[in-house]
Write a structure and sequence with these properties.
This protein has 604 residues and is α/β, with parallel strands linked by helices. It has 18 helices and 15 strands. It is globular. The strands form 4 sheets. It has an 8-stranded parallel β-sheet, with helices on one face. It has a 3-stranded antiparallel β-sheet with strand order 5-6-15. The two termini are 24 Å apart. Helix 5 crosses helix 6 and helix 6 runs parallel beside helix 7. The protein has a single domain, classed as Glycosidases (TIM Barrel), CATH 3.20.20.80.
Length: 604
């Protein structure tokens, strides 16, 4: 393990406190796990129902695609966030690529048409509601629709379209600062945020080929980039404490990573332990999401490779990579209860598989052998067994044919431990998840909105997550505004997010400076005082909130081509960028760009 002290000289947040102090204090982190369940600092269960929203990882320099559509419903970031809240999601997965932090931010502050709140609310009404207990609301509440000033929506203006400015306060100084701003805004709106290192493309054919972010191949550089990012997030948003999930490596097989290491590439075990050792002192309340790898032969090629049973590992020759080193290496770590296993489950439209995609074809056996057993029996070592929490970090479907429907229903039954084949005793309930994705330009899954204007909700997908319909009898406990049990997210933090989009009132009588101040002003004094107090408590080591410790070369050409196609555009650039991606998507272009950006990052 590297002993490098990341971020030295930045601030004292990087200084590790003795594990004994943590044990003496005995306080739970604000977000942690107990007995294979995600819980809060009081031990109450936490159910994360999230959605991925990509863009920062693919050159868009923002969540995609704020250029689509014809009004603020799809073009204004804060309005889209409001819509996500009304659908019942309480978390957002934000894919990011360190190399793309070097991209110049594209300007999304633009003139746009602003519909009245009631019109925006009307876009959230499903054509037919599930046969489930309903809420009493006819429309979602418009009390926090992000439009200013509220007095504008009176009289005739209440039903009028107004000229306005979308994304008026979106930072334009750097892509990195914009990403941090988005993280802060989402947390202030009450979301959990999954910071997800998510390169486009595959690097499995060799270093520098196809993946557009190769910082991971320099562990010291990569861990340092993680450390600096989280340090800056907490500096700007101390309220992020207890609200972050850190998804270190999206689908490690894409990088050719194995648990043992190969071909000069560090082992997945060493990479994970090195980064957690560095980040836990500054992020003791973060959940560390771990994706598996090196087990493609077991059909565990989307971050699912956690198999440790010798009988399972030896099914095929040569034996596949063994995840035991990770569980042994983290057994006595003070952050072991911050670890959450984060597999991805996909159906034939993405995986290309003609077997193993439904219960009668071995679906549950694959899930159990490569991941599920860890949520039930657990990993056994030193005469004890530890059960791990799991979160389904990616899954999605277009539901375009019977295979997709069979696969999806199998996944839902597995997560719910439904009576029947799914209740096999080999896995626990999976109650937290991130659906892929909001963006509709994702191959094999589509998104939560239509692919033309990014405006109309794909209600079939909402039905799949709520259940209660003839096609989707069972769901995943998602509660949008129209179902009983909907829980509005409460805004958090010390500074209320400034509203947007800004409505342009001709007779407002404000100077440009006054308009700017109206947008930018917020009560930073309280935030500063709270930050100073938090810093003082942290610096003296006041009861840190953390618990006591309780390459595969056998990939077939068809598997490889399917994986490359999926990684090439799923999570890639927005629709408007795809033509550029396809024209420039050569190995040489990616290798040159990645090398240049890594060199620039190292010099910085």
């Amino acid at each position: 393990m590297s002993s490098t002290h990341y971020g030295a000289g930045r601030n004292s947040f990087g200084a590790a406190r003795p594990p004994q102090l943590v044990r003496w204090c005995g306080a739970l982190p604000l977000l942690t796990t107990q007995n294979g369940k995600i819980v809060d600092g009081d031990g109450n269960p936490v159910f994360i129902h999230g959605i991925a929203w990509f863009g920062f990882n693919g050159g868009a320099t923002m969540t995609g695609n704020l250029s689509a559509g014809f009004d603020a419903v799809s073009q204004d970031f804060k309005t889209v966030v409001w819509r996500i809240k009304q659908l019942g999601f309480n978390a957002v997965r934000l894919p990011v690529s360190f190399s793309h932090f070097a991209d110049d931010p594209k300007n999304f502050t633009m003139e746009c048409t602003v519909p009245p709140p009631a019109s925006v609310a009307a876009t959230m009404v499903p054509p037919k509601k599930p046969v489930l207990p309903l809420s009493n609301a006819a429309l979602p509440s418009v009390a926090d629709v992000p439009f200013i000033p509220p007095e504008a929506w009176t009289g005739g203006l209440a039903t009028s379209m107004l000229p306005g400015t979308c994304n008026a306060d979106l930072p334009n100084d750097s892509t990195r600062n914009r990403y941090i701003w988005v993280v802060k805004y989402l947390i202030n709106e009450g979301f959990y945020v999954n910071i997800d290192f998510h390169s486009i493309g595959m690097a499995g054919e060799g270093l520098g080929l196809k993946a557009d972010d190769n910082t991971l191949y320099n562990t010291t550089l990569w861990v340092g980039l993680w450390y600096d990012l989280l340090s800056d997030v907490f500096e700007v948003a101390p309220e992020a404490k207890g609200r972050l999930l850190i998804d270190f490596i999206n689908e490690p097989d894409g990088y050719g990573l194995t648990w043992e290491g190969s071909k000069g590439i560090d082992s997945l075990t060493d990479i994970y332990i090195t980064v957690m050792d560095a980040l836990w002192p500054i992020c003791p309340d973060c959940l560390f999401l771990i994706e598996g790898g090196g087990q493609v032969k077991l059909l565990a090629n989307w971050g699912n490779g956690f198999a440790t049973d010798p009988a399972v590992l030896s099914k095929l020759k040569p034996k596949v990579s063994d995840a035991s080193s990770f569980f042994i290496g983290t057994w006595d770590k003070p952050y072991v209860n911050q670890i959450v296993l984060a597999p991805h489950f996909y159906c034939p439209a993405v995986s290309g598989a003609n077997f193993g995609y439904k219960p009668s074809l071995g679906q549950y056996q694959i899930y159990n052998e490569t991941f599920g057993y860890l949520t039930s029996k657990g990993f056994c070592y030193k005469g004890k067994c530890r059960v791990y929490a799991g979160i389904l970090d990616e899954f999605g479907s277009t539901f375009e044919d019977q295979k997709e429907l069979d696969c999806w229903r199998g996944i839902v039954d597995y997560m719910n431990n439904a009576p029947g084949p799914a209740r096999d005793g080999w896995h626990g309930n999976i109650t937290s998840w991130f659906y892929w994705s909001w963006n509709p330009d994702s191959i094999g899954t589509g998104g939560m909105v239509d692919p033309i204007n990014w405006r109309t909700i794909e209600w079939l997908k909402m039905d799949a997550m709520t259940g209660g319909t003839p096609r989707f009898r069972a769901g995943l406990r998602l509660k949008p505004w129209y179902l009983a049990g909907f829980q509005p997210l409460n805004r958090t933090g010390n500074s209320a997010p400034s509203p947007a989009p800004v409505i342009q009132l001709a007779n407002a009588g404000l100077t440009p400076l006054e308009k700017y101040l109206m947008i930018a002003a917020s009560p930073f004094a309280g935030c500063a005082v709270a930050s100073m107090l938090l810093f003082a408590l942290w610096a003296v080591g006041w009861c840190e909130r953390a618990p006591p410790p309780e390459p595969d070369d056998g990939e077939s050409p068809s598997e490889k081509s399917t994986a490359e196609a999926r990684h090439g555009l799923r999570g890639g650039m927005p629709t408007s960028e795809n033509s550029i991606f396809l024209q420039w998507g050569t190995d040489e272009w990616y290798a040159a760009e990645a090398a240049e950006k890594v060199a620039s990052a190292a010099q910085a």
